[in-house]
Structure formats: C-alpha cells, structure tokens
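lol ok so funny story. i was supposed to be doing the assay writeup but got distracted and ended up predicting the structure for this chain instead. priorities right. anyway since i did it might as well share w the group, maybe its usefull for someone
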Amino acid sequence: MPGSERLRPWPLAGLAFLALVLGAAAVVVVMVAGGDPQVVAAVVSVASTLLTGLVTAAATSLWRRRHWRGLDPSAALAEAADDLAEAVSRQWEPALADRRLRGPIPVRWAWSRPLSGRVDDAVGQAGGLAHGRFPPLPGTAAATAATVRSGGLPELFAVYAGLSSGRMVVLGGPGAGKSGAAILTVLEALEHRRGVAAGERAQVPVPVLLTAQTWDPRRQSLEDWVAERLASDFRFLRAPKYGPDVARRLVRERRVALFLDGFDELAAAFRPVALEVLSERATSRVVLFSRTEEYAEAVRRASLRGAAALALRPVPPRVAADYLARLHVAEPSPQWRRLVDRLRAAPGSPLAQALASPLTVSLARDTFPDPDELDELLAPDRFASPAEVEDHLLDRVLPAAYRERPGQPPGRYDLAHARRWLGFLATAMDREGTRELAWWRMHRWASAAVRVAATTLLGALTAAATAAVIGGLTEDFGDRDTIDAGPAAIVGLVIGFAIGLAVERRESPVGGLTGPAGARFNPAMALVSGIAVWLAASLTLGPTVGAPGLVIALAAAAAAGTATGLASQTGLQRSGSALPPQAGAAGTLRAGFTQGLPAGLATGIPIGLATGVPVGLGYGAPAGLVIGLVIGVTFLLAFGLVDGFSAASLDVAAPLDPISAWRQDRRRSVTAGLVFGLAVGVAAGVTDAMAMARHDPPRVAIPVGVVTGVAVGIATTVAAALTVSSTWRGTLLFLQLRARGDGPARGMHFLEDAHQRNVLRVVGSVYQFRHARLQDHLARTHRSARAPKTGPPRSEPGADGVA
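and the output, tada:
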C-alpha cells in the first residue's frame, strides 16, 4: 500500500511514555496530599481511567497493524470498484422507468465546431495534444474524426470509450435531453464493464454521475470533492475490508470516470475555474453536461483542452411525429392523428417548433390523458410562438398528475393545494439558486425562532413531567425530598432552549455514528461516548464524593471518548457485510454486539472504573464492585450494540432516496437517544438508590432507584434524540408551512407523492423537479398569481390523515 495511505498508529513507545508520566504525576499528588482519602480516591480513579484509555489505544494500534498488514491493497481496491459499479447501477436503473428512458425519444448530436478545439486533439491523431493519453477501453475502438462528427444516443458511449483525450462535453438547450443522455451513457458503460474479462476490468473505470452544484473549485480540489461525494453517497465504501480511504484511492488510481451533470448550475464565476481545474487536475475520464449558452460563456475565459464538444440537436418534426404515433398500440384517436399529421404537414408552425426537444415531446405524451383535451392544442392560431406552446404544456403538468383516475381511490392531495405548495417550493428553490430539494436544508425557509420556542416548551414540559412522576411515585418512600415540577420546568426551559439552538445549527445530510470514511478515529462515536460517560459519572460521583467527582468524570469522559473513537467500526472489523438475514432476533443481536464489542469495552471499562473505584474506596469494596459492574456493563451493551449495528449496515447499496434518508435519520436519532437514556438513567437510578440506602432499607432504596432511573432515562432519551435529529427540525418546519398555507402538515408524504406522480424526480437523497423548466415555470406563475396571505386554507383534503 502506498506510504501516503498507510495507517500511522500511535507509536507504542509514546503511549508507554505517557503512562510513565501519568503514574509519576499520580504518586507526586498522593505524596503532597498527605494521604487525604478523597484526594487518594480521585487520583486513583483518574489514573486508572486514563491508563485504560492508553491501553485501549495501544491494543487498537496493534490490532490495526496486524489487520492491515494482511490486506492485499490491489485486490481490495478491485473489490471496491466492482461494488461501486453495482451500487451505481442500482442507483440509476430505476430512472429508466422513472423518467421513461426505455425506448427514448430519438435524439441526435453533432460536433460543435465553435465550442470544440481541433478534432485531432480529441481523438489523439498524430500531432494532437492528447495523443495516446487515454487508450480505448478494452473491447472498444479508438474514436476517429468520422465517429465524432455525428451520431445518436447509442453512439455517445463509443465516443466516451474511444476518445484519446478522455474529455467529452454534451451540450444542449433547456429540455434537450442532457440528463437522459447522461443516465443512458452511464448505464451502457456499466453494462460494458460487466462484459469485460476480470483481468482487464481494472482498465475500465466506474462511471459516477454527480451534480456539479456543490463543488466550489476555488476552495476544494477536484480529488477531494469527488472522494467526499463518493464516501457520502456510497457509505458502504467505509467498510474496513476495502482498506483505508478507499474513495480517494479510487479517484487517484483512475478507477472512476467523472460524469458531471449540471455544469451550468455552477455560479458563473466558478465555471471558468472549474474548466481550468478539469483541464489541469483531472486524471480520469471526464464527461461534462451543460447548457450551451453557459458553457460558451465559460469557454471565453478558459477551456477544457482536448474536449470533444457534442451538441444535442433539436428533434425534427417528422421524428417527433413518428415517436408520438408509435405510442399507441391500438388505432390512435382522431385528435392524436391530427397532431401527428400537423407535425408532418407544417414543420414550421409554432407547434412543430415547440415539440423540438425531448422535454416538450414528453410533455405532449404525458399531459393529455383525455384525447379531447388536444383540441385546444390543435386550435388554429391558438399559439403565436413556440414559447406559448411550451407554457401551455407546462401548465398541464399538474392537472394531469393530480387528476382522478378511473377505478382508483381519490388522491391524497387535490390540485389546488398541490399547485400552491409546489409553487412555494419552486419559488424558495429559485430564490436560493438551487435545483436540489434537500429536506434537511428546508428549515431556512421559515422562522427558526418558532422552532426554538417549540423545542424550549417541550423541554419544560418533559422536565416538569419527569419531576412530577418521580415525586408522585417516590415521595412517600422513607425520608426523601424531591424537586417540584415548577423548578424542574425552569431547568427544562434552559435545556430545551439549548437543544433548540443546537438543532438549528446542524447542517447535516444523512449520516450516522460511523465517522468519516477511511478515518482512523471516529469523532462521532467519541463525542457520544464522552458526553454520556461524563453525565453518568457526574450523576453517580457528585453526591457521593463531592467536587473530586467532577474531575474524575472529566478524566473518564476523555479516556472513554478517545478509546471509543479509536475502537469503533472504522478499522477493527474484517468486513462490512450485513447481518445474517435469517438469524432471528437473538442471532441478529448477537452478531451486531460481536462486531461492536471493541467499542463497547472501550466505553464500559473507563466508566466502570471511574464510578466503581471511588465508591469502593469510600463505601467499601462490595458497593464499588456493584456500582462499577452495573454501570460498566450497561455502557458496554449500549455502545457495543450501537457501533455493531452501524458497522453491520455498511452493505453495498445505492445512495439513499429522500424518504429512506428521512427514516434513517429518525432511526439514528432514536438510537442515539436510547443509548443516552439507558446510560444516564442507570447512573441516576443507582445514585438515587445509593442516597436512599444511607438511611432506608434496600426494599425502599431499590424501588426509588428504579423509578428515578426510568423517568430520567426517558427524559434523557427525548432530549438526546431531539439534539441529533434533523427530522425533528423538519417536522416542525412542515407544521410551520401548514400554518401559513405553504405546505402540508407531513411534508415528506407530499413530496414522495409528487415523485410518484412524476412531478418530482429523485437524484440520490434529494428531490428535483421533473425538469428545470418546470421549476422555473411554477416559480414564475406562483409569484405572479399569489394573493396577499390572509391565513391558511380552511381545509386540506386528504392530507391530514396520511401526510
């Protein structure tokens, strides 16, 4: 494995030196304290927990060194490339049906002389700048001046595979079919790769289709951006079986080919910089898809050297007529025959000129379920220009999508609400200059103060309810004082306000507790472990040993966080395979816990020592042993299961779609909340039981501890789950939009329904409008037609019960 990618574990000599320093410091402190019991207990506890962290770090380093030494980097990289190809195929194959790309509208392309350089530079003929730079892919022929002159969509792959420059640009106007061409070419490239012999497959890169909008070429290198997108979109690449930082290695070793869609959506100032970076820094094949005007503007300041610029041609009226005629298995209606005849007989009419792109032809195909509705489109002198025809077709998208279908129950949402809500979404996206509708970024479209206030109020209610439950159920048990609901509500207000602010500051696409891809340290698990250990140790030790308990809690948090970050599933497991599919509940739990055992030990041992040692020194060894074991085992189980199931989920799959991403975030936040609730609840219950045991028998102390632990655990679960949740913020946002009439109460159901109706489409974990022209049209009509707001609509037919 190259030296730059080899793991560099902490030197064991350095760890031994830290242990010696720590031991010497402990001896000095004990000698200076003169045998003070509290100081001795604190020193012993701090030293033992920190030493545990060092030992765990050393063990992790040794394990990793042994594990990675036996890994074959070439074989692991080849496996990662094959799995990535499978995932990309799963990602885009559904688009064939979703966008009706099977039997696509015939589109042709031609060499764009004004926006291309010399043909020799692209095809690599003698004297060309790119001569011999990229040999043809195995099983394909080298591109020539003749093969790049013109062709149809099936020939795009041959050009991509045979260009010596490795640079291709596909240009066209709005609705010309660029995205469809990108998807079809990617899938054809993947199919070709499957047919290549295993020995030659390393020479065939995996085509990865990314949107350019998130790339800032001035601040982020191309390699960093592509590697980051791969690791984010295809989380299975984090699995240890591929080796460290496999996403970057795939890019660096030319195992991926970059298909970059939406180049025109980059900011105008970014486009020339991006072309320069692609010319100078891109080491793999690059295919760019862009609107012609924006690309031409960028080329005036920079160029993609050696690129073959291919312009998609308008659909001739005769071709459009033939395509529409073939749609009908039976004899077409008179209206459809009139439409086909009009296109053939009057190629210069506004109607024929408008139906010159795949977008408008598909709109004509999809938005006239009732042939009688074609009469308006065919009315003589109805349209004075192609733009008027296109606007008419765009106006028909929503009525066609939300029409009642014979034999089917009424839809969830009616046309009036859908038009208003989709218009609002299009306007908000247009205001931000984006084509991507990411649910975790929509919170910027409504007041954050309202959501913070709602979370603050929820915090007060939860704290008051917790205090009331504990007081009502335990105040009659022995000599006991409990906090009243009023003071608890005040504390809850403060905590809720802090959680509300924290939630609003999160800018998080869906992730998990798995940490960055290829990382040797998992900061997410380290943070969760450290905070949970600090809370549990503070609750347990504060009432028993006083102020030194806070020092011990900080040391335990540092030790547990560091050890857990090192031991979590970034490098210890030998594979990222899924859990056994038929293992049953017990088998699934056992398999998940086995994979997460290192992280569980890394958290459980420090908190067990941190709580057990001081209690044992102050109250006797039996008490310390019981406390340490109970809390330590609780943390071991909680963090072992969390880490194990995070590792087990790294299976080969396409990127999450938006609704799955929403559900995954919800599951992740509930899981994190349960871990905190279990850990803190046990600590609170043990602490309360210990306090009661000083003056009451066990039959009184134990029930009190159980009630306190359960109540505090539930409250902590709610608080922690909300803190890490993006869906909580999204839920509040949808309620805000519903209150002012801009959206339904449960917006994700509405968005997914719009996707099912082919108004929205899915690209990875975000939605997009079916076409950018539809988004622009809806935004324009929404702004012009929106009346002054007087309040939300009186009813939301069909939405309240299912949205």
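Strands lie at 108-111, 150-152, 167-172, 206-211, 256-261, 286-291, 308-312, 760-763, 766-769. Residues 1-12, 508-513, 570-583, 793-803 have pLDDT under 50 and may be disordered.
back to the writeup now i swear
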